[in-house]
Write a structure and sequence with these properties.
This protein is 41% helix and 19% strand. By secondary structure, the chain is α+β, with helices and mostly antiparallel strands. Strands 1-2-4-3 form a 4-stranded antiparallel β-sheet, with helices on one face. It is globular, with a radius of gyration of 13 Å.
Length: 99
């Protein structure tokens, strides 16, 4: 995937329409979302599911979690910005919540 330019702000904003719970950074460098849970165990379980998804997809987010929350940050390291795959990964993360 290296050697291609990251998405423009406009293109990122258009893709973001499909995952409205996610936020685009001011620089249009990454997308992120905070997920809320009832307790630490639920947050950890979600993080484990995200980890398994990331391994299957070969696309690894930055994850921060604690009691009752998990924050996911996505961007493509090889291009130091956003790629369509980041939005696909975000959509799949959304599906984990509803599953």
């Amino acid at each position: 995937m290296g050697g291609i330019p990251p998405l423009t702000r406009y293109d990122a904003q258009q893709l973001l329409l499909q995952i409205p719970s996610w936020q685009l950074s001011d620089e249009a460098h990454d997308i992120r979302r905070r997920f809320e849970f009832r307790d630490f165990a639920e947050a950890m379980s979600f993080v484990e599911k995200i980890g398994e998804l990331a391994e299957r997809e070969g696309h690894h987010p930055d994850i921060c979690f604690g009691w009752g929350y998990a924050e996911i940050l996505l961007y493509s390291h090889k291009i130091d910005g956003l790629h369509e795959n980041d939005f696909i990964m975000a959509a799949k993360a959304e599906q984990l919540i509803t599953a």
